[in-house]
Amino acid sequence: MSRVSHHLLFHALVCAFGVGAPVAIAASSRAAANHADATLGEPIKAVLTSPPMVPPPTNRTAPAKVIVELEVVEKEMPISTGVTYNFWTFGGTVPGSFIRVRQGDTVEFNLKNAHDSHMPHNIDLHAVTGTGGGAEATLTLPGHQTKFTFKALNPGLYVYHCAMPPVGMHIANGMYGLILVEPSQGLPKVDKEYYVMQGDFYTEGKYGEPGLQPFSLEKAIDEHPTYVLFNGAEGSLTGDKALAAKAGETVRLFVGNGGPNLVSSFHVIGEIFDKVYTEGGSKYQENVQTTLVPAGGSAMIEFKTDVPGNYILVDHSIFRTFHKGTLGILKVDGEKDASIYTGQQSNQEYSPPASSGH
Amino acid sequence: MLTSTTLWFVLLATSSPATSQATYMEIPGAAFRSTIRHEGNDGNRVVADFALMQRAVSNREFQAFVQQHPHWRRDRVPALFADSGYLLHWRAAGAPEPLDADRPVTRVSWFAVDAYCKAQQARLPDWAEWEYVAAADTQRHDARHDPAWRKRLFADGTARAVDAAGDSPANAYGVHGLHGASWEWVGDFSTLLGDSDKRGADDGDRLQFCGATGLSFNNRDDYAALKRVALLSAMQPRSTLGNLGFRCARSRP
Question: Quick one: pLDDT at residue A356?
């Protein structure tokens, strides 16, 4: 008897809270949203790009309503030559799709979780002011989609990541990316913009061990990564995939660090950063050699490529670069300028020390 | 003692001949340390003797249930009790694809599986019961201390899972498929974790704080169990998933 009444009560609760409440909430929030949308004009669908590409500047002088659609995909991809890993991704890439909005925009965020996912996922955007950065609002089961809306109050370059338990595992599997909130006046115009994001990866096999490599929880807890990488795979920014610019152009790198554990000593060999928007914020430091990018943090880096050459992107915590994979190339073509850099001018033996006599 | 146990087992096996030939394995209870701490409980449980289905309920078995209880058909079930994904993989409202007939049924809501088990004079297992039996590998009743075993369970819920193949061996209790390609409902799924974000939205409740990875879990190394709990606690009772099935349990009378 008590079991029956408990059951009825449970059903009643489902009616009241499971169905009734969301309908009421939907109606009232729609009314509020309609009022606000009137000043924002027609909604704009955000352009999302895969790394290392960046969406074009918004080129807007007024806030808009922007719709973002992002799908979570779990997939096996190469992490190094002959080595694969079961990545969990935002948009099919590690890092996830780059999102670009403008300060003051009202962003309608739609998160989809692919039908063949085996886990629920969500998204915590550091650009969001509100509980959990949107994570609570986007708990998304496999084959489902969720939606929430936030106002981009603060300009800056922000990390987003999955925050489902076990959080560390979701991040270690590649669930992070960057969202740029342009300041209302826009960012200074540059010739090239690129998206580079570091992450540390933990596999059962040692560095270079071929085949599908499972996640190692033990190494992750000990913070002993097998791979430390730019853009989720060794070689993602070398060879044909090197970043490109011409001598005399200005380059802006949107640099993020997904972690989960390591902070990065980001450096470009042979360049001096003219400006670094430290920690992805609004103030810049000038003439910087190496900038620290925290796990879950970012930096915007600008420099002019004065002379041609291959400029090597590294984590200057340097054993990572040559033994764990943190290496990328910016290939700059163009005319040499010996007034800035000559290249090697001579190579000869120098005079031996004066003879001590026999 | 032996005869009474055997008799009980026979009674269980014959109590609902019309809809199910499912075999229930008798599980001797014991004191057990759950990976999850519940309120006011360090995870120490006493699991009473019970019986658990040897295999997850198949499409064929669920089809028989739906035929006998047509209000659980895909085209008749009220939206309150199952979402729009309910049995969506079946070829027709009342029948699965023939190839899938013996595979574990998925896309079933908690309401539907609860009704199924009741129709077998059974119930869903509680988390503690499920976890207790799933702690076994093929040789040991509790293999959780073995890092190699724990490591293999990361693949639970995927095609690479330990028990993903239909002919995978039974565990030490004689139960098949607990670590399969699909997850499994439990009766008390909604009490496993508090809220959906689980990083402390609720005024510092220790049990829900920060991913619950370090605080509400007795064994922070047991990420496989944590993944399972994260999935189950994300569900609503009317939710269905393409990778979530179930099996039933019976209390000892």
Answer: 61
φ and ψ at A254, to 5 degrees?
-95, 105
Residue A136 with chain B: CB contacts under 8 Å? 195-197, 201
Query: How many whole angstroms separate alpha carbon B91 and alpha carbon B107?
Result: 13
B230 to chain A, closest Cα gap in Å:
6
Question: Comparing C-alpha atoms, which of A275, A123, A258 is closest to residue A199?
Answer: A258
Which residues of chain A lie closer than 8 angstroms to B220, CB-CB? 221
d(CA A77, CA A91): 13
pTM of the complete model: 0.85
Joined together, the tokens standing for residue A166 give 């076990």
d(CA B216, CA B94): 42
- 10-residue mean pLDDT profile of chain A (358 residues): values are 39 34 42 57 95 97 97 98 98 98 98 96 97 92 96 98 93 98 97 98 97 94 97 97 98 98 98 98 97 98 97 96 96 96 93 73
Contacts by B85-89, CB closer than 8 A, 24 or more apart: B85/A143, B85/B240, B85/B241, B85/B242, B86/B112, B86/B240, B87/B62, B87/B240, B88/B240, B89/B242
Pairing of strands A250-259, A192-201: parallel
Helix residue ranges per DSSP H, A14-156: 21-37
**b/e per residue A328-356 (b: at least 16 CB within 10 A):** bbbbbeeeeeeeeeeeeeeeeeeeeeeee
A165 with B198: Cβ contact below 8 A? yes
Task: Suggest the residue from A141, A161, A215 to mutate for an interface test with chain B (most B CBs closer than 10 A).
Answer: A141
